[in-house]
């Protein structure tokens, strides 16, 4: 009941309840508010339960991302099988077989970690998904950086009077991967100890839905994990860019330069899109960024090599490698 101004108390208008409130009878003195987990129906005469909203496997968006994850994972396994089959050939040996295995394994884990983001988030998934994503991606980028540094050091070691000849090889690559990954793991451990992520229910962002999402605990730590990964990616891109013209038939620096350019572009685009999204769409943006950046590394670095291994075996021999180097010199 809304009292009419300037008239008797018994005179009133009948008005609709404001948004978020209901009335179960006509001429009520005031409207009732629905509980947090319910919302008013269109007639505003009863409360309906809110539906849980999260990125599920059943909805089209979740199904598409799941299908992409499985496709890219299977592709990575096929590439790994191809490289294992041709592991004794000159091209595979020239591109550091051990780092190649580490990079392919980490890329496979990058694709599989997308499953932490799909489905209803719980305590364990919220705790693990950003940690696993941060560490596994850091290992991938560190492997790319190690590959590039190995190319440069191996080329410099062929020059007379070069004093770092003894550092060329597996020790240098292993050190780069180990140190880079340990720093990221240390950041994640601090994050887990100080303010770990946890699941939360957002009752107020949408009228008819409850957003089930992970609270990152500390936004600073989340962006620190992303920032460190971005720093490694920028370093990898810079080093590969300056090494792209080194004389080597199977010089990976050109491929790495393009792959890291794509990688950085994806994650630069990720931040504004992520910050402007809510609920399951925010999660979908992160999953898509994971798949796009990992797929970029896989495609740019390994698909040209698979083409040579499978379709152009005539280029996969020592004569081609030595001949190309001599032409450059």
UniProtKB/TrEMBL annotation:
Keywords: Cell membrane, G-protein coupled receptor, Glycoprotein, Membrane, Receptor, Signal, Transducer, Transmembrane, Transmembrane helix
Membrane topology: Multi-pass membrane protein
Signal peptide: none
UniProt subcellular location: Cell membrane
Main location: membrane
Pfam families, per database record: 7tm_3, NCD3G
Domain G-protein coupled receptors family 3 profile: residue ranges: 61-325
PANTHER family with a match to the protein in the record: CALCIUM-SENSING RECEPTOR-RELATED, G-PROTEIN COUPLED RECEPTORS FAMILY 3 PROFILE DOMAIN-CONTAINING PROTEIN
Name under which the protein is recorded: Vomeronasal type-2 receptor 26-like
Transmembrane segments annotated in the record for this chain: 61-84, 96-119, 131-155, 176-194, 220-243, 255-275, 287-310
rRNA-binding in keyword set: no
